[in-house]
Specification:
The structure is a single chain. This protein is an alpha/beta fold. The chain has one domain: Rossmann fold (3-Layer(aba) Sandwich). It has ten helices and twelve strands.
């Protein structure tokens, strides 16, 4: 098995450390509520599509930081099953080291978009009294909208989504849309699910000559929030939490989506708690 020292661990900023705390706190509250459910009794699972190595290095302190899969494995009461997915074998091996042989932890190496749709989501069916918490924290624009829409249609999942505006601006949301490369358009189409992002991202009415002007990150994020409700079918999608770097710029928005009022109430409280961190 790959040794910890041989793995190229992600170095994360303080905003990612805050995100880890948010997910950790919600996972604990979620598991407590689901484990106490009796009529009917529900089976709840933890799913992470871009699980990484399970640990990171803090840019702020230089110390090791437990990642969200590791935090989830320590939640009490425990989830009944864990589904951890990553593209790189060495990261999966490190997750296996962290899990230390727990029989209810399932590992998958490969593209999480296909693995979630084909292998994991079929295990979380409403009719089988199964529910799940799903973390989708992609590396850039590597999340396919089909996964998000399927999660909403299942009606069994609460999800966190990293909405990577920095990656969008770098790959597709250029000030001059005519110069965006075909690869950037393709990746944005896959993330958004269709080409309507072009109409949302640019305004041609703001000047006399009809030149397209790029909309704000906030406007684009709000359009995605509406899409999570109207297209994916999530009933509760509160305003996302902007995750800012040391200069105050938004690196990404942390979205949460659920079918339940109580879930929304919990996450709104948690977002407010961490918003000034």
């Amino acid at each position: 098995m790959t040794e910890r020292s041989e793995i190229d661990l992600d170095v994360i900023g303080f905003w990612s450390e805050v995100k880890l705390e948010i997910v950790k706190e919600y996972a604990s509250r979620y598991s407590t509520v689901l484990a106490a459910q009796e009529n009917p009794k529900l089976h709840h699972v933890y799913i992470e599509g871009f699980a990484g190595a399970g640990e990171h290095i803090s840019r702020r302190t230089g110390e090791y930081v437990k990642g969200s899969p590791w935090n989830a494995l320590n939640v009490v009461p425990a989830f009944e099953r864990y589904h951890l997915i990553d593209l790189k074998e060495e990261r999966i091996e490190n997750l296996q080291r962290i899990a230390n042989g727990q029989p209810n932890v399932h590992f998958y190496t490969g593209d999480c978009n296909s693995i979630l749709l084909e292998k994991v989501f079929p295990e979380v069916q409403y009719k089988d009294y199964r529910r799940g918490l799903c973390i989708l924290d992609p590396y850039g624009l590597n999340l396919n909208w089909k996964v998000v829409q399927a999660a909403g249609q299942l009606r069994t999942l609460d999800i966190f989504i990293n909405f990577p505006v920095e990656g969008m601006n770098r790959n597709a949301l250029w000030r001059n849309p005519d110069k965006v490369p075909a690869s950037g358009i393709r990746r944005m189409n896959e993330f958004w699910g269709e080409e309507t992002w072009k109409d949302i991202a640019y305004d041609t009415t703001a000047n006399l000559f009809g030149y397209p002007e790029k909309e704000s990150n906030e406007a684009i994020a709000e359009a995605y929030r509406q899409r999570l409700m109207r297209v994916a079918g999530f009933k509760r999608v509160p305003k996302p939490m902007p995750m800012r770097n040391s200069t105050g710029s938004v690196v990404y928005y942390l979205f949460f989506a659920s079918q339940k009022d109580v879930a929304e109430n919990i996450i709104v409280h948690i977002f407010k708690k961490y918003s000034q961190r």
